[in-house]
């Protein structure tokens, strides 16, 4: 079908919403309707249950869903990371079955990448997968796994060939988080929440049909996931935030969809940093700090960075971004959160000045202040982003690596 104009697309979405949206539907029922329409992931190709529309039209869909007072597609890393990865590297059966369950919210995915000894050097991972007939037996440990306690599936990378160079002996799996041999231990943050987790895997199993992108090709597949992560978590991105959480463990699928309208899950940075300046404007007005020159300049700078991030994200979605754009967006997000922290702290001042006042935004700002160091670490540290930009975008020489090409078994490891 020909690509519609923006006005045609807007009319099409409005007609669908007028007929299909009902706040009394359950979340699962609404997401199923949204998925079947193609509006759940309009930028994904048609074979991936989308419409194949350009990003500009996908933005139109998001705008109209919000304007109609409906909830958008499922939150979480299935939609943000697993979906684009499966769409790029999965076989036809995987695309047909797995992507449908991501868009309609039946499955929730987490990301099983980082390990205690393999964070910035992700290719140094030691979680191993050993072939046993039609299955792989997985043993190892993962850490900083966001929302693992709410997810029934995981994106797992494990070493399948220890005699190959470290980047070549990795395979990417769809992994059942609910099976025996998987232990999830939440990591309590100083916010009081537990967004991150340790995951211990001891003899868990994965069927051979759950390999994504081919055995030994996991590093290339993982880089697709990482690119989606950095673009989504960066300035102007969508983040992984949303009103309702997918999958059978969160308990949202059978709840009334209308109860989630206008809400975001707490914890984290929100939707890619959008709206941080408005949050501070409201807070400054509530606490009579809107006239402070430092506060005003800080908010103005934050607003400017939000708009720059937004326009950069639109360029990326239109295929006009230069090399390294997702990494730049990720760095911008870290800068924005540090600026938000500085201005919010100035607005709040001593906590005694806020006590006893009806200021709902103060608690949210406090949590974001405490959480603000996290985004400069997860999804690849700021230092790693700068290395990638230098090497891949600017063409600077890579750091010397005397272990390059060596079998992983011969690479020195921390003990």
In short, what is this structure?
The chain is an alpha+beta fold. 40% of the residues lie in helices and 12% in strands. The chain has three domains: 6-105, Butyryl-Coa Dehydrogenase, subunit A, domain 1, CATH 1.10.540.10; 109-230, Butyryl-CoA Dehydrogenase, subunit A, domain 2; 272-393, Butyryl-CoA Dehydrogenase, subunit A, domain 3.
Question: Mind telling me which CATH architecture of the largest domain this is?
Answer: Beta Barrel
From the helix content, strand content and strand pairing, which structural class follows? alpha+beta
- Please identify which CATH superfamily of the largest domain we are dealing with: Butyryl-CoA Dehydrogenase, subunit A, domain 2
Number of domains: 3
Number of strands: 8
Range of strand content: 5-15%
Low-confidence stretches: 265-273
Count of helices? 11
Per CATH, what is the topology of the largest domain? Answer: Butyryl-CoA Dehydrogenase, subunit A, domain 2
Q: Mean pLDDT across all residues, rounded?
A: 89
Integer-rounded radius of gyration = 22 Å
Main sheet: strand order: 1-4-5-8
What string, H for helix and E for strand, traces the elements in order?
HHHHHEEEEEEEEHHHHHH
Query: What top-tier CATH class of the largest domain fits best?
Result: Mainly Beta
Helix coverage percent of residues? 25-40%
Describe the global form: globular
Termini, distance in Å? Answer: 58 Å
Largest sheet, strands/sense/barrel: 4 strands, mixed
């Amino acid at each position: 079908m020909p690509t519609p104009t923006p006005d045609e697309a807007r009319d099409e979405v409005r007609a669908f919403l007028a007929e299909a949206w009902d706040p009394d539907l359950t979340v699962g029922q609404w997401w199923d309707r949204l998925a079947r329409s193609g509006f759940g992931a309009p930028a994904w190709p048609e074979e991936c249950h989308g419409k194949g529309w350009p990003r500009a039209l996908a933005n139109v869909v998001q705008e109209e869903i919000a304007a109609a007072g409906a909830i958008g597609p499922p939150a979480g890393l299935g939609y943000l990371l697993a979906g684009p990865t499966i769409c790029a590297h999965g076989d036809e059966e995987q695309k047909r079955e797995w992507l449908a369950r991501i868009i309609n919210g039946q499955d929730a995915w987490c990301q099983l990448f980082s390990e205690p000894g393999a964070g910035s050097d992700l290719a140094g991972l030691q979680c191993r997968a050993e072939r046993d007939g039609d299955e792989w037996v997985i043993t190892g440990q993962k850490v900083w796994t966001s929302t693992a306690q709410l997810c029934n599936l995981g994106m797992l990378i494990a070493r399948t060939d220890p005699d190959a160079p470290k980047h070549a002996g990795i395979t990417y799996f769809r992994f059942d988080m609910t099976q025996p041999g998987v232990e999830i231990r939440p990591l309590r943050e100083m916010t009081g929440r537990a967004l991150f987790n340790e995951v211990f895997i001891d003899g868990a199993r994965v069927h051979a049909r759950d390999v994504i992108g081919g055995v030994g090709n996991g590093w290339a597949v993982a880089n697709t996931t990482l690119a989606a992560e950095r673009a989504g978590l960066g300035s102007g991105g969508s983040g992984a935030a949303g009103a309702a959480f997918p999958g059978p463990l969160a308990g949202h699928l059978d709840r009334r969809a209308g109860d989630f309208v206008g809400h975001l899950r707490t914890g984290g940075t929100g939707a890619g940093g959008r709206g941080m300046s408005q949050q501070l404007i409201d807070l400054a007005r509530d606490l009579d700090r809107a006239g402070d020159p430092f506060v005003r300049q800080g908010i103005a700078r934050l607003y400017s960075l939000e708009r720059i991030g937004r326009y950069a994200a639109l360029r990326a979605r239109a295929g006009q971004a230069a090399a390294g754009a997702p990494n730049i967006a990720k760095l911008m997000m870290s800068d924005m959160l540090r600026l938000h922290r500085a201005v919010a702290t100035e607005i709040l001042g001593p906590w005694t000045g806020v006590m006893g006042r009806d200021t709902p935004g103060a608690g949210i700002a406090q949590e974001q202040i405490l959480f603000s160091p996290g985004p400069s670490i997860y999804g690849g540290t700021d230092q790693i982003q700068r290395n990638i930009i230098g090497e891949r975008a600017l063409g600077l020489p890579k750091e010397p690596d005397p272990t390059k090409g060596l079998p992983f078994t011969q690479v020195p490891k921390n003990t």
